[in-house]
Amino acid sequence: MHWIEGIVQGILLGGLYAQYALGMALMFGVMKIVNVTHGDLVILLALIGISFADFAGLGPWSVLATLVPIGAAIGWLLQRAMLNRVVGNDPLPSLIATFGLSIALQNAMLVVWSADTRSLSGGGIQQASIEIGPLFVGVLPLIVLICATLLTGGLDAVLRFTRYGRSLRAASADVEAAAMVGVNPKSVYATATAIAVGILGFAATFQAMRSTVAPADGPFQLIYAFEAVIIGGLGSIWGAFTGAMILGVSQAIGFRINPGFGILAGHIVFLAVLAIRPQGIFQRKS
Amino acid sequence: MSLLSTHGLIAGYGDMRALHGIDLVVNPGETVALIGANGAGKSTLLRSIMGLLPVAADMVQLDGAPVGGTQPHRMVQSGVAIVPEGRRLFAGMTVEENLRVASEHAAAPQGQPWTQERVYDLFPILREKARTNVENLSGGQQQMVSIGRGLLAQPRVLLCDEISLGLAPRVVREIYEALPQVTAQGTALVLVEQDVGLAQRASQRLYCLLEGRVTLEGRSEDISRDDISAAYFGASHALD
Ligand SMILES: Nc1ncnc2c1ncn2[C@@H]1O[C@H](COP(=O)(O)OP(=O)(O)OP(=O)(O)O)[C@@H](O)[C@H]1O
Ligand SMILES: [Mg+2]
Q: Which atom of ligand 1 is nearest to the CA of B41?
């Protein structure tokens, strides 16, 4: 019983990590960019959302509806203004550029929002739970998991079945060849980053509702996203989702063993996967 | 007026200059062959035209307007497409998806547009393989996809870089027999070809490149074997 509950909690936690990981998997898969600002963008969006709630009186769902387009706009701008200049076969320039931006962003957030921890009121939904068989499951984590599943399925469908998805897959297979058949790589990239950061609008809202956020929290979110993506296999969408579940379950089970061991258990599983299967569990053969 | 032309085109890689002033003319609907030894600069010339290498604007003209250095996807929109050296298909995607990416980003068609059906009529084997991932095709089939992709860009001029390379003679014949159907509707072709005889037979005009310079140009049927070998290997070699 104890363990089943742990696994269920882990899967629910994995739902949040999946929302972090999706955009990272997308950006890495298409552009070979590891966006170090990924976690800071979650925090930035969360703080923006909390401010909207505080000053404009928005409820959590209105905050979500606002943060997704804001995230998409930030992503588009980030790609156009910065990442399109450093993207290429060598992943190092984008790593260095986003590392610098991450530090700048953390400092800027500190100036605007101070170091206080804040959270978003969910109007009671945080406390609500439903009984499924012998288990009590929180309503909010369940919503998070459902959103994560729909986002993953939706993104996968976009990649498979739409004109944009085909152009993106073409660009990730061979960007020069894609340009030779009329695809504009820079605009494909800008849209990819817009989608990636737009999804963080979900992650930011839910993170701010279930817990607290402060300007320096970004690197932790980045690590979870990164671990989920590596466990699942770089660049694969459902791989990132499953990686997030594995990470969530590892942490939850670790937490059951010893409350101090939870996060560490996730890191250990991540390192074990790196050692045994560095290409990730679900990586398609290239 | 010529459709596509280059004017003293100079291009290279970093400090290394590979082309030293190329003048090339392509008229609407004509087939121009480009021959030359390995490393002569044929691919570099096509890549420069396509906007894949930096060149000055007036070194490449389309309909008499300077287009040198235009980004490749914009060249496609203006009616120039390329079948690149090494095929460069989109791995992980099916034949149909490869073709579809091209038709979804094509130029506005001139005359009867190329459709997936017409490409399948041209290369019937591709219809059978439509749902196969391109990495599982034979070399010849991959080349057909690459040509189909080029056609679906609805080009007015199609630049073909060694479309016969590494293919069985029967497949080469099959591909070259399909080319008249392409030019029949007014599409011009530039054929980079290793097989000199094939290049001569398939084209109306021919250019020979040697070490980044044009050493011979003329009507394909008027050029003699000796002229070609002198131009191909350099005059010193021919004198031996
Ligand atoms: N990516 C590159 N970087 C540096 N030099 C290059 C590159 N590609 C080609 N070159 C050089 O440029 C010159 C022209 O090469 P190019 O590929 O245009 O020749 P080619 O006529 O197409 O030859 P082939 O018949 O072998 O395809 C050669 O000296 C080649 O070594
Ligand atoms: Mg070549």
A: 18
Cα–Cα distance for residue pair A150/A161, rounded to 1 Å: 16
DSSP string, B107-176: PPPPSSPP-HHHHHHHSHHHHHTTTSBGGGS-HHHHHHHHHHHHHHT--SEEEEE-TTTT--HHHHHHHH
Q: How far is CA B172 from CA B83, B128, B199, in A?
A: 15, 20, 12
Q: Say how many C-beta atoms besides its own lie within 10 A of residue A179's C-beta.
A: 25
Q: Could you tell me if B205 and B217 are in contact, meaning their C-beta atoms sit under 8 angstroms apart?
A: yes
Which pTM was predicted?
0.92
| Pick from A145, A114, A117, A115: nearest CA to A211 | A117
> Is the CB of residue B44 below 6 angstroms from any atom belonging to ligand 1?
yes
Residue B239's SS3 state is helix
DSSP 8-state assignment for residue A127: T
Domains of chain A are: 2-276 (1.10.3470)
Residues lying with their CB under 5 A of ligand 2, a single-atom ion: B 43, 85
Print pLDDT tens along chain A (286 aa): 578 888 888 999 999 999 999 999 999 988 989 999 999 999 999 999 999 999 998 999 999 999 999 999 999 999 999 999 999 888 899 999 999 999 999 999 999 999 999 999 888 888 888 888 888 888 999 999 999 999 999 999 999 999 999 999 999 999 999 999 999 999 999 999 999 999 999 999 999 999 999 999 999 999 999 999 988 887 689 999 999 999 999 999 998 888 888 888 889 888 988 888 877 777 654 4
Chain A CB contacts of B154 under 8 Å are none
Kindly report the CA angle at A16 between A168 and A190, in degrees rounded to 5? 25
Closest-approach residue (CA) in chain A for B84: A177
Among B81, B144, B84, B147, CA closest to B110: B81
